[in-house]
Amino acid sequence: MKRMAGLSALALIISSTSGCGWLWGQDGYFRDRGSDYLDASQTAPMQMPPDLAAAKRLDPLLPIPRNVADDTAKGEYVVPRPLPLSAVADFSDFSLQKSGGSSSILAQRAPAEVWPIAHQYFEDNGFRIAEDRPQTGEFNTSWQRIDELSATMAKRLTAGGASADSETRVRVRIEPGVQRNTSEIYVVSVDRPAGSTANTDFPARTTNLALDSTLTDDLLASMSRSAAKGGSISLLAARDYDTPNRVALSVDGSGNPVLNLGADLDRAWSSVGRALDQGEWRVEDINRSLGLYYINLAEKAQKPENEPGFFGRLFGSKPAKEEIEARAERYQVRLSKVGDNVQVTVEKNITTVAPADVARRILGVIQDNLG
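RESULT FIELD:
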């Protein structure tokens, strides 16, 4: 130990003296060699012995460029700053997908966030919203002639095949995507002769391919522009999208707490997921086909305010996997379709229900966050 201390002191003294150019100077042992390649020069190519003339010729693996080794490059070389990017990666939260001739929009956002954006697009272009059904993710416009819409929209629809002698009505349907916090947006239109009173129903699939494609493409472009500008959304409007029309906390026949939601399964899945994300626990996994959210009460939600600060990351230590497993309190939140409603229950595992006090606490937080 004393020897190490002595060597450390000697090194400190040597480094602090003025005569240490032999260590760190331009000609020192630890000098910067980053510009040595500027002084490199080409030599004659390697020659093979005469008796090996039939062998494969040798080509230089790392040839020196001719404009590097010259007499004008002296001193240290300054690395130039990189040129600015000329283009930004073509990525957006919204993309077009096609299937069977029809088009739809895939959004990397929850349906509750997409709903007000799509709603605003049609209102800004002169469409009158006739029916709003947030619980089913649909809204319909009124019957309107082309000349009743905005000039830009009228021009686009005319180019898409819409007739000035007809009336058009549009239905927009927003469904939860296959992956969590994604959405799929479908646009379907119907038309009828102007002045007609016939109540034409919306088809199950797109029939006006040109017109619906025009609307879908323009909606996609509008959403992409909004995302690029960092456009905000109304949180109140977003909550209206998937909030069930009835929420009641009760008990089943065995006395276990049950949360009853007046919504279809898709809307309930979206709203419960949003409510769980606002809780003080971590959602570790989901299984959409089984209607299950897997939560861990012992771990905080993955939010910026729950992440350690600079000094916490610097001096703290990330808990080991064994430590996380030892303190884990895992439960399953299950959604089940019962008639016209959805029941939300809490289980310890597939064969055991959660303790009543734990289930009531979890369901109570979900209920509060749905309002």
